[in-house]
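ping. complex inputs:
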Amino acid sequence: MIWRLIFGRLCTAVLTLVLVSAVIFAIMEVLPGDVASRILGRDATPESLAALRAQLNLTDPALVRYARWLGGVVQGDFGTALTSSRPITEILAPRIFNTLMLSTLAFLIYIPLAVVPALIQAVHREQPVDHALSIVTLALLSMPDFLLATLLLILFVIMVPVLPAMSLVDASTGVGDYLRALILPATTLAIVMAAYAVRMLRDNLIEVLESEYVRMAELKGLSRRAVLLRHALPNALVPTLNVTALNLGYLIGGVVIVEKVFGFPGFGSLLVDSLQLRDLPLIETTVLIAAAVYTVANLLADIGAILFNPRLRTR
Amino acid sequence: MALSAPQISSARGFQVVRFWRRAPNSFRIGAAILLAHFVVAVTGPFWAPYGFSQMGAGVPLSGMSWSHPFGLDQLGRDIFSRVVYGSHIVLALSLSGTALGIAIGSVIGLISGYVGGLADEIVQRLLEALISIPFLVLALIAIAGAGPELSGNPLLIVLVVALVYAPRVARMARAAALDIATRDFVTMARLRGESAWSVMRRELLPNASGVLLVEFALRAGYAPVLIGSLGFLGFGMRPPTPEWGLMISENRALLIVSPVTVLGPGLTLASLVIGLNLFTDGLARILGRTVQVAGK
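pong. complex structure:
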């Protein structure tokens, strides 16, 4: 029963991704502007444009090109980038590695940043500390990521110069420098995600703290700390899983901005570059990966909810 | 002629005062911030000390001073004046884009939810696909796809905001339609022989208006961030438009010399978003709904 449910969600997810690829292809096809004129610049002659279009197979009908591309993807071949004529998998690999490192560090910073303020707020609810933290999280939520990144830059690069302003890394960068380059972008992402989660976790914690089993735990003489960390927190975290999955979805959009701000050569900046160059195969691949991460995150949240809450299984 | 006109208006004025007193704090603070932004947006061009592209307003990059509260940029343009001029651009783009997105989304959602069946299923899958592309990425694709001729066109930005919001709004509107459609008064209307169109317009839409209002406020709160992000990445308005996100990206290169040229537009943008988020939070409480702020 439960496996059938999960299998159903999985099929929907795959269908969604196929539709995503069609949508991207359609948007780039229907709207004006093409890659040949982008590569050759403003002073291209009509003859050279035509020659380049023929060379890049841009003259084939759109459906044929889409089918050819989709057929390649199914076999694990994403094609070659139009602008640099290198295989896309070769371009992607280091970028994805960098962004994975960035996201991992962001998540490591995110967890304490979400849990600690929420615990403080729940314990001191409706007191000045709680209100103050509520205002801080609201302010952080309302701040655009590029502004937050810039503020951190002013703080840790200009006022207290301890970190590099640009996170330019390549294969020759040492581990220490690599980590130092990651700190600012990862912190920016972590703060944005945490601001979102803190508000929800606080409300969940307060609800759990008023439940019968927490009162029971208090009555049987457990210390406040044990009640909070062993009884209340785990139960309050379950609904927050959904937010964390949503955050993973946010992360994939957030890296676009944050990597650009810090000049970090990851997946997000590759996506922006490919859009600026109108390199369709590269755009298709990067956006499809972004959508896949989002879809998988939601799928995991759904499955998590089903596993943790047996009542959902009958639906 | 039981009541004369002044009495009616004073009674209404009294209701407004009572509503204001009972409104949650977040609503009042949010409304006050928004009012300030609106006043600046409408009157700003008349009292801004310098023109938005007027060069040589003072010594370039000379930092904060009484005559230049947000400093001057590399070209000697007064940043404060530029921020003031940018106000109506940011507000107009955000609100019209959001309104268009809500209009398109609610029409799609209400029809799809009420009609149901295979059509609904197909629409849902398509919306799902659009939603699974992150906000900003979808906006960037649409702008890149529109090509260089249209880039920097305000109409394109409005359409892009609408495109990003419509699928998310449609999903909300559909859920509302499914809920309302089961109520007795809809069954009644159908039994009376009202057409599907009339049921949608006269029964579903008025009853979904609360949901849609909160949705509008929520989405409007993120629109300035989206537009600012597009400007920041070079996909939004073109120079010399004084759009805040674009200004932040222009002045960032010289952040070390004059941080205030970035902080000025940045914190102004943040204050607008905070105002919108507080307003939404208050509005949702008044209408008795729970809402997660920040429409990510």
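Chain A touches chain B through 53 residues (CB under 8 Å).
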